[in-house]
Structures are given as structure tokens and as C-alpha cells.
Amino acid sequence: MNDKIKTIANQSLRNEPISREDAHYLMQINSDEIYDVFYWANQIRLRYFGHSIKACSIVSAKQGRCTEDCSFCSQSARYHTGIEEFPLIDSNNILDAATYAEQTDSDSIGIVTSGQGISSSRDLRSICTAIEKIAKNTHVHPHGSFGILTRETAESLVKSGLKRLNHNLETSERFFPNVCSTHTFMDRINTIRCAREVGLEICSGAIFGIGEGIDDRIDLAFTLKMLDVDVVPLNFLHPISGTPLENHIPLTPMEALKIISVFRFVLPNKEIKIAGGRERNLRDLQSWMFYAGANSTMIGNYLTTTGRKVEDDFQMIKDLGLKF
Question: Is the dihedral of CA 97, 100, 102, 108 positive or negative?
């Protein structure tokens, strides 16, 4: 067993910060020692989370016609992707999605709307009504992803019962201009800080396989550590026809697993959730995501792409000796 990897792991097991140099070392490993990285990432997961796995679901509450130009996203109005487009759905339909999420043992339901932010006071009222109904009628936690928020909007969401905001940084500050030109990395940072100030938990992560390098992945991990986010969703590119990244080749399963592991080393006691693109990038190694350090996953369908059958994920968790 590689003694250097063990030494770095012991720091994470004690919740002591590892250095960027150590993270870089781990991210560059391509030999059989990658299995040492997985082993220790799993030990760190077990130390802080045991055998419990969290699951969440999402509902696409407003889809398409987005003004932004995020290069990986099928919902931008600038690209011709052929997705179904619709305005904000009724609050009762959102409640129905939450009720189904509860039946599938999801811990939370994420309400996701397309666009730079919540576009009107009418939409805000409808979203707040949906959150109130979820809080009153189900046991799942209402979470949301609504783009860039103002302080006033964030306060309204909290008053309605929102528990957590998802707002991904996507990539490093250095690489971000290659991903989006219609808003800045600091716009995203400011939304996270705004949400934190009004009492929301923060779910913020990334998407990988979009052309970023090792340094971008490491910078992002340490930025999320600096922001002290609560949950870190890791997405992997599922190339969508019509977007600028439609011809990108998905990451190999081992590369994706290594990313998960290094994030576990850097963020030992944070919930690491594997989300979009796991089917396409991990393929037959999806169950390995937990032994690479993840302790949470999204189940069911995503926004404009389909996920695995919930029953298959349940069976996978059971077969691994883990539990929701």
C-alpha cells in the first residue's frame, strides 16, 4: 500500500485539511495505486457517514427558454436541443412530485427552474406556495435551484419553508469563462453567500468532463471547502446534441471515480452526492461511487435526461450492504 496516500488519508480521517499539493498528487495517480485512493476514500466515508446513503429527487418545475449560455446545458434558448419547454408548473404538480419522492424514500425534493433567476413576483409566489405545501403535506425536505438570487427573494423562500439552496459553481473561477459568458463566477459566489446569510443550507458542486484540467478540479474543491457548503453534488457531462459540448467524449469510469475520491479527501465530513451523468460516465461501475467516497446520490430522472429505474438503485444499495 502506498504510504504517502495513507498519510494524506490519515489527515482527512482526523478532519485535518490536506494541501493542494497532496490533492494534486492524488488526482494525477493513474497506476494500480488508484485502488489505494479508493480504499482510503471509502474509509473516510465510513468514518463520517457509516453505511447510510442519502437519496434525493428533483422536479423540473420550469424548463427551457433560458437566457444564459452555459455550454453544457440543453435548456439555453441559444441552442437547438429539441427539449420540451414549459413555463412554471402548478404548485399542486410540484407537490405531486414531492409525494412521489417521499414514496421512493428520497430525503428531499429539489424544485428546479430554468433561467438566470426567478423571473417574476408571480412565479416567486407560486414557488413559495409549492414549498409551503410540501412542508405541510410530506416529510421530505423542500430544496430548490432557482438561479441567481437577490437577498429579498432568498428571504421569501426561507419564510415559505425552503431548507436548502442548490447553486453549483460548475468549475473553477479560472475556467468558468469557457463555460458561461452571460454571468460571472462571482455572481454564483454571491448567491451562495446571500443564501447562507438568510439561513439556508448550501448545496453546491460541479460538472466534470467539460474540458477542465486537473488544476480546475482541485481549485473548485478548495473553493467549496472555503465556502463551507453543506452538500457537494458532482455531475459528469452527458453531451447533449445541439449544445457546444455535444461532441465531448465522456470521462472514463476510473477518472470519474478518482474525482469523487479526491473530493472526499478534501471534504471529508461533507455530503458528496453523485448526480447527473453517472449512468453515462460510470457505466457498469456505478456501484463503485460509494466505495470511491460518495455517501449520497440522486435517484430517478434528471432535468432533461433520464436516470436509472429507482428499483435498480434500491437493489444496488441493498446488494452493497448499505442503507438509505
Answer: negative
Q: How far, in Å, CA of 165 to CA of 155, rounded?
A: 12
Chain centroid offset of residue 52 CA: 18
pLDDT of residue 175: 98
pLDDT in tens, 103-147: 998 999 999 999 999 989 999 999 999 999 999 999 999 999 999
Phi, psi at 210, each rounded to 5°: -105, 10
pLDDT of residue 324: 83
Rounded to whole angstroms, the Cα distance separating 115 from 127 reads 14
pLDDT digits (tens, 9 = 90+) for 186-216: 999 999 999 999 999 999 999 999 999 999 9
- In contact, 18 and 11? CB cutoff 8 Å: yes
- The partner residues of 166 in beta bridges, in order of sequence, read 203
CA distance 131 to 39: 40
Residue 47 burial (C-beta neighbours within 10 Å; 0-12, 13-18, 19+): middle
- Cα torsion 265, 271, 275, 281 to 10°: value is 20
Write the CB contacts of 311 (distance below 8 Å, at least 6 apart in sequence).
Answer: none
C-alpha 291/C-alpha 38 separation (Å) is 6
Query: How is residue 55 written as a grid cell?
Result: 437519496
Mean pLDDT value across the chain: 97
- Please give the Cα distance from 29 to 36 (Å, whole number): 10
pTM for this predicted structure: 0.97
